[in-house]
Design brief:
Blueprint: H1 6-10, H2 15-28, E1 34-35, H3 47-58, H4 71-85, E2 94-97, H5 100-111, E3 117-122, H6 127-134, E4 138-143, H7 154-160, E5 165-170, H8 183-193, E6 200-204, E7 231-236, E8 249-252, H9 255-266, H10 277-285, H11 287-312, E9 327-328, E10 339-340, E11 343-344, H12 348-359, E12 361-362, E13 364-365, E14 375-378, H13 383-399
Helix pairs in contact: 3-10, 4-10, 5-6, 5-9, 7-8, 10-11, 11-13
This protein binds 4'-deoxy-4'-aminopyridoxal-5'-phosphate (PMP) and glutamic acid (GLU).
Glutamic acid binds near residues 40 and 101.
């Protein structure tokens, strides 16, 4: 009889990955599923990045590398932070991990002691609370509200900070609601943070390039001189360059934390895959990188506007207009209490299950993001799929 570790009982499986896996399995079985589940660009990785990977393999870049990564990649990331984000990180302030997710996990492991509190702003990305629990931390949720576009106020933040608070996680633009703070709104949060010099901010900036309606992106650590030493800035190639499967993420921050992450990684995965590292440099430094990001961003903006309009047109559905990332997060709770076949819809989980079962549309229930009244639809899919899926959703709601 095998007894698993207690920590496994603490955490749930990633619902975002589970929904994508289920939709893909149904597609494989011949069912015409419209997948709004995966938070993953439908574009292929740009050819010039793939060519750089082929070259890396041909050149024999197949051996162990230093734990943080090859010096060329560290230098390219430091330059990106300096040039694009106005963050004066040096190569020693940088490390990489197997995607943004792994960087965040290692960072929680590096700074949290048992009982330390971590402030999450709801709705939040599903993996934050689970990673915090695995690292022994305690989640403190600050509730966002739809009528404020899900953005919290400086007062809400000030009220949530206790002597036990160790980390504040910020994610703007955000997964799952697509909301993004303006520079002035972020500055108002920064003014609260600087009153607490021992608070560490994890600024998850992986959707920085995907902003809409002319919204200006700013890196949190630039908002006050003190914040540079208080903040870890997370990013990755996954969404920016349509490289989700490559598993390339990176983090910039104070050297002692970066060194701690490297110590951990040296006993864990050693380093990220060797032949992804020079392609990751090319993505950041070749002018075609910027061109492909601009093209994808423009396309996502069109799709996002269209999906939001179609959702807003549905009876009894309300939805904040996304300002970034590639998600809409409508409130569908007006339909709770209705029945499909023998199943009663009581929350976002049963709503999503019934929608998938009866109309073959995959969406992510908001429960694991702190909202059991909302579902997440990704618009990182074609216009045609968006229309097909929204037609089906409209029909599903009509029949409820
Ligand atoms: N942060 C947020 C907010 C995300 O949505 C995701 C998932 N894409 C990640 C981090 C992790 O990204 P990656 O795929 O590089 O691990
Ligand atoms: N982050 C993406 C999403 O939210 C990919 C899946 C995951 O890692 O959670 O859908």
């Amino acid at each position: 009889m095998i007894h698993l570790a207690n920590r496994i009982q603490l955490v749930s499986e990633s619902i975002t990955l589970a929904v994508s896996a289920k939709a893909n399995a149904m597609k494989k079985a011949g069912i015409d599923v419209v997948g709004f589940g995966a938070g993953e660009p439908d574009f292929d990785t740009p050819a010039f990045i793939k060519d750089a990977a082929k070259l890396a393999l041909d050149k024999g870049q197949t051996k162990y590398t230093p734990t943080p990564c090859l010096p060329d990649l560290k230098a390219a990331i430091a330059k990106k932070f300096n040039d694009e984000n106005n963050l004066p990180y040096k190569p020693e302030n940088i490390t990489t991990g197997a995607g943004g997710k792994h960087c965040l996990y290692m960072a929680f492991m590096a700074v949290l002691n048992p009982g330390d509190e971590v402030i999450l702003l709801s709705p939040y990305w599903v993996s934050y609370p689970e990673q915090v629990k695995l690292a022994g931390g305690v989640n403190k949720i600050v509730q966002g509200e739809q009528r404020n576009g899900f953005k919290i106020t400086p007062q809400q933040l000030a009220d949530a900070i206790t002597p036990k608070t160790k980390v504040l996680v910020l994610n703007s633009p955000s997964n799952p609601a697509g909301h993004a703070y303006t520079p002035a709104e972020l500055k108002a949060l920064a003014d609260v943070v600087v009153k607490h010099p021992n608070l560490i901010v994890f600024s998850d900036e992986i959707y920085e390039k995907l902003v809409y309606d002319g919204l200006q992106f700013v890196s949190f650590a630039t908002l006050h001189p003190q914040l540079f030493d208080q903040t870890l800035t997370f990013n990755c190639h996954s969404k920016t360059f349509a490289m989700t499967g490559w598993r390339v993420g990176y983090v910039g921050g104070p050297k002692p934390v970066i060194d701690a992450i490297n110590k951990l990684q040296s006993q864990m995965t050693s380093h990220i895959t060797s032949f992804t590292q020079m392609p990751a440099v090319v993505a950041l430094t070749d002018p075609r990188g910027k061109e492909s990001v601009d093209a994808m961003r423009a396309e996502f903006e069109k799709r996002g506007r269209h999906m939001h309009q179609r959702l807003a047109d549905l009876p009894n559905v309300t939805c904040v207009k996304p300002q970034g990332a590639f998600y809409c997060f409508p409130n569908v709770s007006a339909y709770f209490g209705r029945t499909v076949g023998t199943t009663q819809i009581t929350d976002a989980v049963s709503f999503s299950a019934a929608l998938l079962e009866s109309h073959h549309v995959a969406v992510v229930p908001g429960n694991d993001s702190g909202f059991d009244t909302h579902v997440r639809l990704s618009f990182a899919t074609s216009m045609q799929q968006i229309d097909k899926g929204l037609d089906r959703l409209a029909d599903f709601l009509k029949k409820l």
